# Entry
Amino acid sequence: MEIWINPACSKCRGALSLLDAEGADYTVRRYLEDVPSPDEIRDVLGRLGLEPWDITRTGEADAKELGVKEWPRDAASRERWITALAEHPKLIQRPIITAQDGSAVVARSEEAVRDALGR
# Structure
């Protein structure tokens, strides 16, 4: 199990605390420092069953500067979104846990973290 975190994020810290309390075996990836490649983002999106716009933090300054809220959300624009996430990792929703069964969850709630633990 791997968890993508921003240490400054309270949701990330909460997820880590819950994982620790449950004795989970996991690896931490500080994705702002160890930036995921476009291929890794595609892989996680497949595991999540989501599209890149579903995990984009559109309220971030970088998102506003890029104007992502106005970008089309369609198959033709998918790579543009993935490139933006790879070039501006602050835009990636957090935390993301890749579960042992090959799936993944955006773990912003205790229920989502527990869901990942149960997989």
User: Anything to note?
Assistant: The CA atoms of residues 2 and 119 lie 13 Å apart.
